[in-house]
Amino acid sequence: MYITERDGVFKGLTILAFCWAVVGPLTMKFFADHGATVIRVETSKRPCTMRVSAPYKDNIPNYNKGGYFNYYNSNILSLGLNMQLPESREIAKRLAIECDVFMENYTPGVIEKWGLGYEELKEIRPDIIMLRQSGYGSWGPYSNLPAFGMVLVPIAGLPNYIGWPGKEPLPVGVSAYTDCISPRFATAALIAALDYRKRTGKGQLLDLSQFENAIYFIAPGVLDYTVNGREPERIGNSSPDAAPHGVYPCRGDDRWCTIAITGDDEWASLCHEMGRPEYVEDPRFTTLADRKKNEEDLNRLVSDWTLDLTPEEVMERLQKAGVAAGVVKNTADMMEDPQLRKRNIYWPMEHSEMGTFTHLGQSFQLSKTPSKPYSPSPLLGEHTEYVCTKILGMSDEEFIDLMQKGVFE
Known about the structure:
By secondary structure, the chain is α/β, with parallel strands linked by helices.
């Protein structure tokens, strides 16, 4: 199912997308959710890694039942094209003429091998905007290296900040972390390019590096090194500016809460909530410097208190007392979170093979032109005939001939 009647700020915008993994889909989804027509090129010869990644519906591996793919790909069209065939490449060029934006996130050189580089595209569509967001950008010593999240996260230095003192660096928890960072930068760049074209009539090439985008997330460390020549030290859950500051065990199976105290007034409030007002005057904990010096004892005392409470109880009591505290939520908590549901971040839609499936919405709301759940994530190649006959104007005879040649596989 695909709903063609749309509204939104990008109604009338058409995007041709050669995407892989998460970074491309999250970028194109922003525009599709706000009314753009997005045509994603796929092939059964080498399906997107997200189509062949668990978890699957009913734990049965299937191109159309991958949880990751369906979570990130609602509101788009899926066009099957076997790009190893010259006929498929010609169809891609014909589509590019009809599109405002050409988007891709393959290793540099792949698109050029198919005759779809920026220089070739602007010959057939002079005002086209091309958005590229490879791992390292299209030039430089790393540019031709294949890249994915598990490699990009450490090379961007993120694990160097995570872990316990004197221990090895730890992963960030989500291997495709840079895939979730880069779409925000790509979206801003593409909106700027669209504005420029509206004012000048000219397109341009946008070249983004996921590696470079990730640098923004270690800004304090970069600043410290630039100014002081000092490498960061891994400090676990502690903070140089707060104590107690950490994750504490709560009542229940694998249940945790966070607490952060930056001032002496907050510390006094925590002591009263714990029923231990004498800790306020305890010389071990009187000032932040004292609490930092005795942090091990401090964390043990706080943990003894939190163990008797659920994380929700800790959060409610401390927030009311003016202390920063929160629940460490698991996935079930997140799916039922009343704040997220109230703001419509989850879009349940009926999928032909997944049943009722929750797709990801947008994390902000436009009052006049909000994002909308038009259509569920597509089956592989589901809209091939529609794209070819309705958008390209292909005759039934031409479509059948190309199908028999394996062009749409």
